[in-house]
Every structure is written in C-alpha cells, then in structure tokens.
Design brief:
alpha/beta, 3-stranded mixed beta sheet
C-alpha cells in the first residue's frame, strides 16, 4: 500500500465529517438541507448555563435565557433561568493590555458548567491571539463568552452576538 493510499484510507470523507444529515430540497435537487437533530447535536449537552461577571447590568440580559431557548428549540436546548455570577480567574487578566484573554474565560466557565453548554457574559474588554479585541469566542461543543464592552448596552445586539457564538458552539 502506497503512502497516498494510506492517507486516502485514513482521511474522513465529507459525509463522515458532516455534522448534519443531508437531504435534498424538493424544489432544488442540488440544495442540501441540514437537520439540527443529527450526530453532533445528539452527543452534546442539551442544557445551557449562563454566567455573568458581577458588574454586568442584569436589565440588559433579563430575557436572554428565554430568547436563546426560543432560538434553539429545534435542537431542544434548555437554558437555565438563573444567570449565575462567575468571577473571571486572575490568570485570564492580561495586565499589560488591560484586557481579559477570551479563551481562558471560556475554559473557566466550561469547568463551572460541568456537563452543560456555557455562556459567560463579560463586561470588560477581551482579546484572543492576534486580535486586538473580540466580541466573543466559542469553543465547539463546550461553550462561549461574549464581552459587552463594545456592544453599546444594546440588548438586541447582545442577543445576536450570543446566538452567533452559541451557533459556533453547535458547529453551525
């Protein structure tokens, strides 16, 4: 067996990697549809715990659990009504930049959420790698963080960023 054959045998096909079941649209045979109840979603937690930094304005996020749950009803996601306060770890603070390290915030929240998807809302600024700042960061199948620092206290914008990042958590 040649090296190329070996690589070909070990390389997953698109069908093996695809997290969704595909079918065709009745109107367009070339248009695949994705089912949100297939493989990746069957293996992931179906509950979400929202955490917040203590200084996050609770009025801005009061209806967030309900709105997130409504958005993800197709996959049966349940969101805890209680938004718990979670202090970011000291190790996540980059004193020289005056910002939090986004990945460390997500990792900490995921540890606290144990077997749930986590969403950590941060009032302070955050960055990730080469980016000077981020609106949030998602770790697939685990959780995400959203910083409200640049979102102008806009509840709808906060909601949209949360939905976008939770979508990344679910591989969308």
């Amino acid at each position: 067996m040649s090296l190329i054959d070996k690589i070909s045998d070990d390389t997953p096909t698109l069908e093996e990697e695809a997290p969704f079941e595909t079918s065709t649209d009745a109107n367009n045979a070339d248009s695949p549809k994705k089912s949100l109840s297939e493989p990746i979603f069957q293996q992931m937690p179906r509950t979400c715990q929202i955490f917040r930094q203590s200084k996050v304005n609770t009025n801005l996020i009061a209806d967030l659990p309900k709105r997130i749950e409504e958005c993800f009803t197709q996959i049966g996601l349940k969101v805890s009504d209680e938004i718990k306060v979670l202090v970011p770890p000291i190790s996540a603070w980059d004193k020289s930049r005056g910002q939090y390290i986004a990945d460390k915030i997500v990792e900490n929240a995921c540890k606290q959420a144990s077997d749930k998807i986590c969403l950590h809302l941060l009032e302070d600024d955050a960055y990730d790698g080469i980016w000077n700042f981020v609106f949030g960061v998602a770790h697939r199948s685990q959780g995400c963080m959203v910083t409200l620092y640049r979102l102008n206290n806009d509840p709808d914008l906060i909601y949209k960023i949360c939905i976008s990042l939770l979508g990344h958590v679910f591989g969308l």
